[in-house]
Specification:
Elements lengths: L2 H13 L7 H4 L3 H7 L4 H20 L3 H7 L8 H4 L7 E2 L5 E5 L4 H6 L5 H14 L8 E4 L23 H18 L3 E5 L1 H8 L5 H4 L4 E3 L10 E6 L2 H6 L3 H15 L3
Parallel strand pairs: 2-3, 2-4, 4-6
Antiparallel strand pairs: 1-3, 5-6
Helix pairs in contact: 3-4
The chain binds iron/sulfur cluster.
Length: 261
Amino acid sequence: MPNYKLKKILSEMRDIGIETVPSSYLSLAGEGKKAQKKSSRDANDAQAASLDNAQESLLASASLEDVKAEYANCMMCPLGHARLNIVFGEGSPNARLMFIGEGPGFTEDHTGRPFIGRSGNLLTKIIQDGMKLKREDVYIANIVKCHPMKDPSSPEKHGNDRPPSPDEVEKCIVILRKQIASIRPEVICTLGAPAAKIMLNNTGGISAVRGKIFDISPLPEEPQYSVKLVPTFHPAYLLRNPPAKKTAWEDIKVVMSLLRL
Ligand code: SF4
């Protein structure tokens, strides 16, 4: 059973007051299947430990709503002082696929929603027309949740975007990790070079990572959890360079095949 389904069932059980489950139940999880192939007692012990960890991790993950409430007034970094709205992210709490961009821009800051406006429309088109999913079926978020501005005193000014600083990323990525811990996506698709670099801890450009599938462990406190990551171009880049849409579609096809769509 995929972890996202297991998580949903555990979450429903927790909602009705059940806090523990037999390890035999959890043997349906991916980690359990692998461990079952080992025959020695040590392997069984390792399986039990792994399942206990999985159970604890899955049950301990805060809901998305809890995470959102926790950071509703976040001022952990200077971006909090200039923003009009926190752009937390939106989509299904049980999404199998997460899209992650770098940070909100002008329109997102004004509405509190990720990836809207022209580039957001293109992303929606990719999801709906290309992948045959609904936007609400996936989860869309950014590395930082507040609009990084060159001139923080002018949130109404267009063309005021800048990349987030490493310090801002370091502060805010805590929230993204909690979102990932809660959603447990099977695949993450990063949009644009900065998001790929940050998620992969890689210093190369998009050409160094595009066209590859990465296995990453995005939760430092839970290194056994791994997720596939597929980098692709940012929709804003695709609007500026329409020929790149063909290449991006190849990436999306990889994502679809990983999700067996
Ligand atoms: S960018 Fe992130 S860490 Fe900084 S204030 Fe906004 S929510 Fe908080």
